[in-house]
Amino acid sequence: MRAMKTLDREKINAYVEQIFKDMAGAMTAGLGYVGVQTGLFRSMQGQGTMRMQQVVEASGLQPRYVEEWLKGMVCAGYLDYDPEQATYELPDELAFLLASDDTDHFAGGMFSMAPALLKVAPQVAEAFRQGGGVRFDQFGPECVAALDLLNRGNYDHKLVKYWLQALPDVVKKLEGGAAVLDVGCGTGRVVCVLAKAFPHSSFTGIDLDPNSIEQANQAAEENNLTSRVRFISQSVEQLPEEESFNLITACDCVHDLADPVSTLTSIQRRLKSDGTFFVVEPKAADRLEDNRHSVGAMFYGYSVFHCMTQSLANGGPGLGTCMGPQQTEALMRDAGFTEFAILDIKSRVNLFYAAR
Ligand SMILES: C[S@@+](CC[C@H](N)C(=O)[O-])C[C@H]1O[C@@H](n2cnc3c(N)ncnc32)[C@H](O)[C@@H]1O
């Protein structure tokens, strides 16, 4: 055992502050989740200063809950407060991020990950002791909804207009009529967005989770896309070998795979000879020391409370959220891809790859 050295009082105080800050952050994420779900942020958007009663009326919510939420959000730094007038104000810049559902700048979806993932924290702690993990379906429909809310702004607004522009040949094929497979399609958003943008192409979405596939089928019906879109609840390995695709996409999925090399090999075999595998992954660096920032800390939380753990639950390697480009490339090459490129697409949270 190391000899006990004199503890630095200032450092202790700084760590105490850090612990309070982190716990406040966790609670603020919960308050933020409520603000998004109940429409509180939206009801304060563009209203300037408001008295508590005005927020109650604008939101139609229970007064005592609204009052406590307002006070909590003032302390968290999310609302401006005038003590003399007893008024609250949601700054326009924050409304831009949190009262902006269905835009590419909506950041409120992140809050929904906190309750969806921390719900399984006791089971995760048990898995630290016993091994195993928490299966995807054990997170329940709230997690499927949270993932959808987290990613939908990007898929709806950036996938076609920005991300795919990095692959002009692929866009040309999609315009002419291509066969597309989305692996780990979740609620089918990527497929529906692509199907709407490229009316001459046909689309298959595949996901192991039947609940997600049910929602994806609903989305296809609501968008009148069923003639060109199908969703299947199975793994790629189960697709007939003779089916091949011009474009295969995997968004926020590769790091979750329970048998990555086998699944990626099946993907590689189902690509037409000139086909492209387009991969979207969380933006993490290969070296831990380069992930020491708020997004890195958030991603390791996502990993322990979801990504790594649901892979381990299925006997997988638990690659985790923070794979980094080198590990991703090595995996792709193991699976038989011979070309691998990091695409020049700017994002705070995602990395983009093309493989053949
Ligand atoms: C993090 S979610 C992402 C969902 C969606 N692509 C999105 O970006 O919102 C990962 C998805 O991959 C699915 N998945 C994991 N392993 C799979 C496999 N081997 N085959 C098909 N889907 C898989 C999960 O069921 C889950 O829906």
Q: Describe it for me?
A:
The chain is globular and about 70 Å long. By secondary structure, the protein is an alpha/beta fold. The model has no long low-confidence stretch (mean pLDDT 97). It has a seven-stranded mixed beta sheet, with helices on both faces. A three-stranded antiparallel beta sheet has the order 1-3-2. The chain is built from 14 helices and ten strands. It has helices spanning 9-38, 40-44, 52-59, 63-75, 92-98, 113-118, 121-130, 141-157, 168-176, 189-197, 210-222, 260-269, 294-313, 324-334; strands at 50-51, 80-82, 87-89, 179-183, 202-206, 229-232, 245-251, 271-282, 340-342, 350-355. It is 47% helix and 14% strand. It has two domains: 9-100, Arc Repressor Mutant, subunit A (Orthogonal Bundle); 118-355, Vaccinia Virus protein VP39 (Rossmann fold, 3-Layer(aba) Sandwich). The structure holds S-adenosylmethionine (SAM). S-adenosylmethionine (SAM) is lined by residues 136, 147-148, 151, 183-186, 206-209, 212, 235-236, 251-253, 256-257, 263.
